[in-house]
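Many introductory courses stop at the sequence. We go one step further.
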Amino acid sequence: MKKYHLSRLTLGWQIMIGLVLGIVLGCVFYQNKTAITAMQNIGSMFISLIQMIVLPIVISCLTVGIANMGDMKQLGRVGAKTLIYFEIMTTLAIILGLIVGNVFQPGQGIDVHNLHTSDISQYLQSAKQAQNHSGLWAIIMGLIPTNFFAALSKGNMLPVIFFCVFFGLGTAAIGKQGQIIIQFLEAVSQVMFRVTNWIMRTAPIGVCALIGATIAQIGLNALLPLGYFIILAYLTMLIFIIGVMGAVAHLFHLNIFHLLRVIKEEAILAFSTASSEAALPRIIDKMDKLGVSQGIVSFVIPTGYTFNLDGSAIYQSLAALFLAQAYQIHLSIGQQITLLIVLMITSKGMAGVPGASLVVLLATMSTIGIPPSGLTLIAGVDRLVDMGRTAVNVVGNSLAALIIGQSEKEYDSQQAQHYYQTFVH
């Protein structure tokens, strides 16, 4: 009789087992401060390991990709297409959230006095810090790093991308001398992908700890009053992936279900950790293997982590309507159009702020007359909804890389089909 080893399970199944164990541990150690602290620390260590490798991968892959592209006109065209695509998809996500909120009325009949409330002081502080960093000019000014190494130390993705684009173009411009840099950075990227594979072996433990800490803090009972809102948010995200993303993929002769099968492990990882960064290194690697040119992959995906947050957009619009309905505030069509425009702007300006979705909500609520204290109603379950919206963001950025690659004829469909077959079998 053959023994069945855990190592034979795919990473996706190992993460799912970690997810279930985390829920069990969270229930067992409910409100146990010692256990919560231990699980939070273990989970934070895993996220720190991922953050440790993200920027080296982005720098090496993006610089090499831009250097190989070597064409300023193509780069400008790719950049324009990418930003326009991101804006269209984000707008569609916000509109879908508003439609679902109006049709299904998740906040109707909610007694705001009987809901579990949470401390929002950290989000108030983040909102104050973000006020000076929102708006079009603030975003543009924030692109240019006065000190590249300072941007690296703070983990500011956009200034790093800006510098790497110019560094890649400069590397291409000096010809043969630049090949030394390209070969070095290619070796760096390969080393970092190998390190990624090692770190991913600890993912089930990290996932178990993160979920366990969340459930132990809020408890399952706190979810019951907001159960309808949580279920509706997840169903809306599912509709967006299959319906909206599926339709857009079909327009570009792509299959959304093929993509989901290829990136299912990364989507599960993003879902269970509520961290897009956890999936970024492997997503970059897989999109490259799917036949999209390295330059487009390494530009589109990191940029999408700031500008293409479809899951967050759905949540913000749906949550805004939920809170308005809970406080019995009727929003006219004009007010909802204003809400749409405000969310389109604020979601870009605050994407890098901790707890960004709640901070965006906090900045938006005043425009529709909801008191800041309203945020306390959903802050407690934000982490659980965050899991879903993070997975949607990862799927959306992966699809964006394929679509931009297809539009630039930098996508090898035969290579993609061959790579997809490895997941079928």
